[in-house]
Amino acid sequence: MIDKDKIKFSGYLFLILLLSFIFTLLISPNTIKIGVVSSIVIFSGIIFLFQWISFIHSYYLNSEYYFDLVGSMTFVLIIISAFLLSDLKDLRSILLFSIIVIWGIRLGSFLFFRIRSKGFDDRFSLIRTDFFKLLFLWNLQGMWILFSISPALISLLSEKKNSMDFLGYLGFSVWVLGFFLEVVADYQKMIFRSKKENKNKFIKLGLWAYVRHPNYLGEIILWFGISIICFPVLIGWQLLSLLSPIFVTILLIKISGVPILEENNKKRWGDNIEYLNYINNTPMIIPRILKKKK
Fold first, then answer.
1. Residue-wise DSSP of 161-194
2. Fewer CB in a 10 Å sphere around the end CB: N or C, the chain?
3. Which among 153, 112, 127, 138 is positioned nearest to 48, based on CA atoms?
4. Which residues make beta-bridge pairs with 277?
């Protein structure tokens, strides 16, 4: 009997690898070479190699503990390596290196300790033992890393260098806003869940009173900030890397973030009048003009 899921996810996997390969080739010209190969191509291969090795560990140990940690640390290791390889340690390069390392270490450690405390990740509940679905998810993470970090990689490894300008400082300001929103939202939810009286309750306080997923809003904003910082350095097909924040947005809102959380929340509180009122009156991602719901 034909396993339709196996065929479907094999197709998805092939598409991810094909798109990632084409994307890598298109953005690789005019960047530092290692031997005769573009450094972008090599880093792209390393990104996926990390995910494949981690997939083997995840599948055979039936564990998702290290999924988010591996993803975040891949960002950190790749950006450190690119920074060390870059010819010119200008202000833009130092800034990109610093903010991605700060973001990666903060997010990776937060998500790792959260799953250690909770004991499981809802996203893996139905796919933990499914070879093809799990392999697809690890490769999707590889694609997320590649697309997200591509503007910064190009900026660090480009043969073209521009001095920091207005767009650079504007992008940094946007990143600070996004990082602030993400950190504050995560902290508010962590404090809320740590209180015994809030057990089996949903959060609707602080930033969560304005939007249902303020942490994802922050994540999207900060990647737009990074793309703005990198924009003056990009040339030709490298402009495709500006898809980075758009890809992050689609991934969070349509694929791996919001849909899974919203579905799980409906299962838990779908018959709760207070929760139904909350989701009917609170935007998913984009806040209303600074008017808090009563």
1. -----HHHHHHHHHHHHHHHHHHHHHHHHHHHHH
2. N
3. 138
4. none
Torsion of CA 35, 37, 38, 39, to 10 degrees: -60
Q: Using one digit for the tens of pLDDT, what is the confidence trace for 92-136? A: 999 999 999 999 999 999 988 888 777 677 667 667 777 888 899
Shortest CA distance to 138 belongs to which of 231, 12, 2? 12
Q: pLDDT tens across 195-229, in order?
A: 989 888 999 999 999 999 999 999 999 999 999 99
Q: What whole-number distance in Å separates Cα of residue 108 and Cα of residue 54?
A: 15
Q: Is 18 exposed, middle or buried (0-12, 13-18, 19+ CB in 10 A)?
A: exposed
77 CB burial (10 A radius; 0-12, 13-18, 19+): middle
Phi, psi of 92 (to 5 degrees): -60, -45
CA distance 229 to 170: 7
Amino acid residing at 35: G
Angle at 185 between CA 145 and CA 151, to 5 degrees: 25
What are the backbone angles phi and psi of residue 66, rounded to the nearest 5°?
A: -105, 10
DSSP string, 35-81: TTEEHHHHHHHHHHHHHHHHHHHHHHHT--TTHHHHHHHHHHHHHHH
Count Cβ atoms below 10 Å from residue 6 Cβ, excluding itself: 13
Tell me the C-alpha distance between 107 and 101, whole Å.
10
What does the CA dihedral 116, 118, 255, 127 come to, rounded to 10 degrees? 80
